Amino acid sequence: MNRFKLVFLVTVVVAVHLAWAAETVPIKPSPTDKCPVCGMFVAKYPDFVAAILFNDGSYAVFDGTKDMLKYYFDMKKYDRAKNPSDIKSIQVTSYYNLNPIDGRTAFYVLGSDVYGPMGIELIPFANQAEAQEFMKDHKGKAIVTFGEITREMIEKMD
Amino acid sequence: MERWIERQKNILDFTLSSLFRRKWKNAALALVYVFLVFLLASVIFFTHALKQEAGIILQNAPEMIVQRSIAGRQAPIPLSYIDKLKDITGVSAVKKRLWGYYYDPTAGANYTVMAPEDVQLDPRSIIIGEGVSRTRQVFKGSTMRFRAYDGKIIAFEVKSIMPSESELVSSDLVLMSEDGFRRLFDASGEYATDLTLQVKNPRELSVIASKVVHALPDTRPILRDELLRTYESVFDWRSGMALFLVSGAILAFLILAWDKASGMSHEEKREIGILKGIGWETSEVVLMKFWEGMVVSLSAFLAGIILAYIHVFFTSAAFFEPALKGWAVLYPRFKLTPFIDASQVATLLFLTVVPYTLATVIPSWRAATVDPDSVMRM
Fold first, then answer.
1. Which of A60, B145, B191, B362 sits 20 to 30 Å CA-CA off A3?
2. Does the distance separating the beta carbons of A138 and B207 come in below 8 Å?
């Protein structure tokens, strides 16, 4: 039992530490982290992880870009204590090399034949060339940047 | 509760002495029973252990291997292909591999010779597997001679013997430097045996495989999953064959067990009649028969499982080695790492102990419900 406690404590310390370090250090969801939008455990789907890091060091992890954006467009609904101005950075997982990348500068492919744990997804890429290649291979419909994504687009995906 | 346990103990005591009275008959049955469980469990343990070994081998295998084929045969692949493969989106690394087989006439065995990129070796030294060390009696520091492609003898110094969690993987391995490999086999510096691709996202594997074929039409991509499936089907096929061979024994046992367990002899019926006559209840008779079935089948099952474990993991399945291990010749002595799949053991338990116990209980229940007077008069 003590060992579990220790593991838990270490996980929390590491998570907090990672959250403080933010930006440069990628978020690794702990086994108990749940997606605030759909309630599923995030660590089971490392290929689709997205995260929002806050100024106060806390973070929220999601099992897909879509759920992250749902949260982003409607923060009050999921967490009363947080405001859009508290956001420090956004991380998404790049499709080809599975590295965490900056969500605000990433390119997203819509309507492809690759589905995430929550179904239809926006698939993130670090650069436009990769996004175009992916769109060609996986019957994508459009490439959008973070600024171009609207709440309606996300709502239409469900 | 204590009373209940006491009751079970008394009935069990009676059962044991009654079994002992017919000891030869029961011993013969138990012996056949043990043998059958032993055969079945051996096959199960053995194939399961082999599959696990294959899993260990493939754990560190690259996601994709690209081989070149000319006229349907594998051929050396030009190093210039590496850049073309690197350009494919989603491929994170491409590595060349140099490997082949060397036939050693003194040992009468084939070695797998590899020149790994991540192990630094000078051109005159090699690292060998345990199997090679055992057959050739070469150890750390001694020299091992190889006959090169042109007949010249090349001497290598054994730098170390490979430790490994799975001996099946490393037993016949000989690791040497790239220089040594090229000198031994006259392999040109512009070619590799095959190329390995690292792909981070497994979802992308099939797309990348089709791009590889498109970009380099004379190559053939092999996915790790395909290798795993091939191994599994080979082992399934082999275990199926072994089960087919023992199916005759199983059938014979079933007939014997069924006959012994279900058909009650006149003597046994009489015994039940007497027990009822002296005041036993039907439930107690059934309980006694239940313990009888349990004692025979459970002890035979346990003995069979233990024997099978010893057979497979200590003697390397000596009985059906020739049938199950196609490449046994190459490995003079290798031990399997013990793996036991609890669910398979449970399945075997339910397939042997439960039907046997039921087959003893049901007819005795029928005999016990008959009037004791008429049973004793029979």
1. A60
2. yes
